[in-house]
Amino acid sequence: MKQQGAHPDDTEGTPDASSRPDTAEPETAHIGEVEGDEPLLPARVHRPSDLMRLLAGVLAVVVLLAIAAFAHGTTSGLEQDINKGTGQAPDLLIKIAGLASSIAILLVPVAFAIERLIKRDGLRIADGVLAAVLAHGVTLATDLWVARAAPGSIQEALTQPSPGDIHALTDPVHGYLAPVIAYMTAVGMSRRPRWRAVLWVVLLLDAFSMLVTGYTTPFSIILTVLIGWTVAYGTLYAVGSPNVRPTGRTLMAGLRTVGFRPVTASRVESGDAAEAGDRGRRYFVTLEDGPPLDVTVVDREQQAQGFFYRAWRNLALRGFATRRSLQSLRQALEQEALLAYAAIAAGANAPKLIATSELGPDAVMLVYEHTGGRTLDSLADEEITDDLLRDTWHQVRALQSRRIAHRRLVGDAILVDRSGTVILTDLRGGEIAAGDLLLRMDTSQLLVTLGLRVGAERAVASALSVLGPDTVADCLPMLQPIALSRSTRGTLRQLARERAEREREAVLEAYRQSKPARAEHGAHDAADTALEKVDKKAVRAEQRAEKRAIDEAMEEAREEDLLTQIRHEVLRIRPQAPVEPARLERVRPRTLISFIAGAIGAYFLLTQLTHIEFGPLIANAEWGWVIAAVLFAAASYVAAAMALLGFVPERVPFLRTVAAQVAASFVKIVAPAAVGGVALNTRFLQRAGVRPGLAVASVGASQLFGLGCHILMLLSFGYLTGTEKTPSLSPSRTVIGGLLTVAVLVLVVTSVPFLRKFVVTRVRSLFAGVVPRMLDVLQRPQKLVTGIGGMLLLTACFVMCLDASIRAFGDETTSVSIASVAVVFLAGNALGSAAPTPGGVGAVEATLTVGLIAVGLPKEVAAPAVLLFRLLTLWLPVLPGWLAFNHLTRKAAL
Is 288 in a helix, a strand, or coil? Predict the structure, then answer.
């Protein structure tokens, strides 16, 4: 298949074949002849750089307004200094500057539009007009906000009395200047030196004339420029920028400029689309005279792919574990050329770089000698011999001997030519003069890459034979998912899901095989009505046999993950090797989200508490109700133990279970509420003698029933709250709205394939272990009654604790019904379980306070009542929870 690689919108930024001095030669007929599937490029692309500039502009506007609001003295002094300096300017200069800027600010955009239309670049003009219209709308909205709703300090910084009318104020944002700036930025005028110089002269003249004549303030001019600039890049990112990526035809022309005579170019597809931006587009090029070439084309758009992922890695990981998130094309070209030459000089087999060139202002190409061969990923299992594995390690050792880190030793970066020689490709992301940590990360990455193909035993054995046991053992702290490549982490996650699925299938199969025995036993009991008594020993023996079969099935199905297998193989040679993972993360996503959510919650609480006088409030508190709240909070731990043990058929000490629930009050301070308690209870049951799979299933069954009870109670109390003040039994509009919202969410989840698959996978994994466990519990009705009763009692304790906290600070005129308190608590508890902050800090306080105010409680009572409730249920139990945690740990119960 042959097709032209040109794009109809690719009119700028790429070399034109007709402009080259050698295009008149006969070989020009071959230019643009591209074999293979050269897909048409999209007309527009969304540049991450535009989004970053948009965010930077928004941040600059926020900072400017904050300075204007809180640094009133600084803004006033700055205005006085500028007015004093500009007041000494000659009147003639002021008039000339004002006239010139008024004319230029209209003519310059029109002139640039004409120049773009002549070059058939009308799309840019359309983008500029759209940006100008949007900027005008933003200026009108800003003017309205400053005039009617902004604080007085911001209004003083952005406006001043108009020279023509002292009773009127100047505009906070110039309605004509911001659209012009947005237009000129969106059309790309700032990227052209001559037009950029004209643009700055016009802006400076206009700012000077407006300041001197008193029609603006310095902050108003800065805000105008920022709004125009921000709206322009927001428009460009929303609608996309014209695509100027070089095509195959451009590549053929570029090869001729560096002395080659190309005949055809075939596009080579990349194996991993997620990391294709790091490798560039590859072509196989045949020449008229000479061996073929391998050409890599890197352009700005492709280089920017994955920018936000790399930026997050730079933020989350320590500096030695990451590389720059975004390089210029010149830097990328120089780095790849340097790594190619350095690898060959080190004695490693790497593609030989023979030429480089720019393909216009937005792309570069790198020309290599053709290597041929296939990647490790494309080889069959029987083709991956031990000699090939050792050869791969020899190449890595050659790089590391010169302190060169590859940084991406995945399957498609390891090439095997026709003679079986291993060649390392994709050196673009590597580093020279690398530290020990980077070299150890390379070793761990290659161990996992080879282990995915040949298993941990062969991968480790080949590494030991080349690198030695000490070098391999030193990489164990780097053997963690975050130190591996993005594609490798995805493969490991997929394997983990497959292992979990096999374990679930084994458990269900063991359960299905035990069904006939139970059915036969049930039929025998029904037929043997004369005895009227079941042989309890036989029933218990059958249950033990069933559990034993399920446990054996889980043990047989349980598999170690690849990283654990590699560790075990290395530890057989070096038992004393360090296995503790190295600290690579600077900040974890959960920590960042917790900090942001906690800050928002703290801000909300502080704004609520600033208007409350706690001295008189505490002095007038009803201490009897405070003691009652303490007792209800303490009783909640007994109820939590009942709710857990009700779904555990095995015998577990009750008092120790209560102590575990107290210990959970310490754990949930350092972990989200929905995570810490589940992990601790699972660990506690395992230490109490319950099999790991059954412990997980018991906690899962408890959580599942708890969720059902929570929803039923929320609907029931919500119904009562809606009808308690009316004689009819019609539900309130809030309940109806809530039910409709839930129905809409269910429809959305079931209609979107991705969401439906996500939910079904999670629910299936939950029920796979829970259903057999629930059948065990159903055979003991007293256990089920204990579990459900404990859940109801747990909710009742918390509701009564919150109600007692309200009564401690309120009186008869400020009381609310128990049903309303229950609805507020259930809603706040649900949000706290979903919040990523430890213990739901911030989210629960905000929800409870807003909910109590919404049901009619004064803010002066709601805020301290919530604080007392959270103090008794979250903060005060931390110390006894820590003591209980340590006690259970010493007793090997956790």
Answer: coil
213: its two tokens: 């004549």
Residue range 316-322: mean pLDDT, rounded: 61
Give the Cα separation of 775 and 658 in Å (integer). 25
d(CA 201, CA 188) in angstroms, rounded, equals 17
Give the integer Cα–Cα distance in Å for 132 and 53.
17
Q: Which two tokens stand for residue 277?
A: 């931006």
Closest CA to 710 of 786, 792, 832: 792
In angstroms, the CA 354 to CA 251 distance is 16
**Model pLDDT, residue 809:** 84
265-314 pLDDT, tens digit per residue, is 888 765 554 444 456 788 889 998 889 999 988 877 666 666 666 776 77
Whether this model's pTM surpasses 0.85? no
Q: Per this entry, what is the length of the chain? A: 894
d(CA 17, CA 62): 48
Q: Round to whole Å and give the CA distance between 335 and 342.
A: 10
Between 326 and 124, the more confident residue is: 124
Upper half-sphere CA count for residue 317 (Cβ side, 13 Å) = 19
pLDDT at 167: 64
- Among 548, 529, 275, 511, smallest CA distance to 413 is for 275
CA distances from 602 to 46, 608, 723, 864 (A): 37, 10, 35, 14
Both ends of the chain: CA-CA distance in Å?
66
* Residue 735 structure tokens: 């309940």
CB burial string 109-129: b at 16+ within 10 A, e below: beebbeebeeeebebbbebbb
Task: Read off φ and ψ for residue 642, nearest 5 degrees.
Answer: -60, -40
CA distance linking residue 538 with residue 543, whole number of Å: 9
Interval 780-791 mean pLDDT = 83
Task: Output 864-869 pairs: Cβ under 8 A, ≥24 positions apart.
Answer: 864/612, 864/614, 864/617, 864/618, 864/809, 865/802, 865/805, 865/806, 865/808, 865/809, 865/810, 866/802, 866/805, 868/626, 868/629, 868/805, 868/808, 868/809, 869/629, 869/801, 869/802, 869/805
**Beta-carbon contacts of residue 703 (< 8 Å; ≥ 6 apart):** 678
Long-range CB contacts (within 8 A, 24+) of 734-743: 739/715
The three-state DSSP-derived secondary structure of 584-645 is: CECCCHHHHHHHHHHHHHHHHHHHHHCCCCHHHHHHCCCHHHHHHHHHHHHHHHHHHHHHHH
User: Residue 684 contacts by C-beta under 8 Å, 6 or more apart in sequence?
Assistant: 657, 660, 888, 893, 894
Give the contacts of 398 (CB within 8 A, at least 6 positions apart): 346, 347, 348
